[in-house]
Amino acid sequence: MTQNPPPDDQPTATCPNTTVSAPKLYGKKLFWAVFALAMGGFGIGATEFTIMGLVQEGALDLGVSLPAMGVLISAYALGVVVGAPILTAMLAKAPRKNAVMWLMLAFTVFNALSFFAPTYELVVVSRFLAGLPHGAYFGLAALLAASYVAPTKRGSAIAWVMMGLSVANVVGVPLITWLGQTIGWRWMFASVAIVGALTLVLITIFVPPVAAPKDASVRTELTALKNGQVWMAIATGVVGFGGFFAMYSYISPIATDVAGIPLQTVPVILALYGVGMVIGNGVGGKLSDVSVIKTIVWCCIVMIVLQLAFGFTAHIPWLVFVWVPLLGIAGSALVPSLQALLMDSAPKAQALAASLNHSSLNTANALGALLGAAVLDAGFGLRAPMFLGAALAVLGLILALITGMRQRKIDAASANA
């Protein structure tokens, strides 16, 4: 991503809706700063999504059922939900570069612990711990990236940080899935720990320091939790994405047992989903710069249609390779807009609001995995998670429309104030 410097070559400027003063970056300096932050997203995406392609191998190694492996997915997601508000508030006064480095260090250590955990129960605990820094890292990294660019480029800057997660699904997830199938599924944890260590080096070198807001405090950040619009945005993400994760958490058995695709082909499906995420992330960033609410609404509509189509045609092998990347586009395009909506909803507590986006998405992850396990345990079959996903996306659409109406009223009141 590039950006031309302003005519007066002003070195610093105040970010919108925040008291933080940050250096404005251009060209290679901007690229490498955002690349370093996105590398952390790459590691996070790898550990979050690779396990979904290794549930069968993990179940065999640990001697548990597929629904029990779904608990590992939910444990990580629960860690994100718990850690995002707590760690963001605790780091409110820390310089933002230092904060993201501490978060990435914790992420690296806890993934290494997952590699060595000898029992199923300890893997569940280590997965929970590894999820704790996730939301706070993405929230603060998004704010850092946004602070380095002009306000009109904010959505794109956020999307570029999220691009690390998307690229992880193209490169990291398929590669690490193949590695896990070849030499042992636990090697996904070691691989992610290596990426985390590399991220720490890159951030140290390329990310300029940015101080915390002068009035930052735990109390100030927690004001975001009193904002009704923040909770509406969170609910939209939870319900809408919950449907998506109900399907994606079990994409491996859906592909092999319903479509009859060989297990060895699952990494290809995951790679196609990652390609969709990369495309959707870029498109979603641009659309977010135009209209946050309209982007959210249309993404929900598209997810409803795609989930239904997938559910009815999941037995056709080649269509799996169509629906999965399209769902990746729709889901990923939604993320920058949800991030921007939360940041706008709590201008005095943007760090916590930004991190709550990932709490909502990982609540959706946990909800989707658990609801998917519930319909499977109830005997509805492997198509059921897709239909469940479509129903949840309908609820997400309703919440998005309500959120949009509330936001228009808030914007009108601000304009008349």
UniProtKB/TrEMBL annotation:
It is a multi-pass membrane protein. CDD domains: MFS_NepI_like (cd17324). The chain crosses the membrane at residues 30-54, 66-87, 99-117, 129-150, 157-179, 185-210, 230-251, 263-283, 295-314, 320-342, 386-404. Keywords: Cell membrane, Membrane, Transmembrane, Transmembrane helix. It comes from the Bacteria. InterPro entries: MFS, MFS_dom, MFS_Efflux_Transporters, MFS_trans_sf. GO terms for cellular component: plasma membrane. Residues 33-408 form the Major facilitator superfamily (MFS) profile domain. This is Arabinose ABC transporter permease. It comes from Neomicrococcus aestuarii.
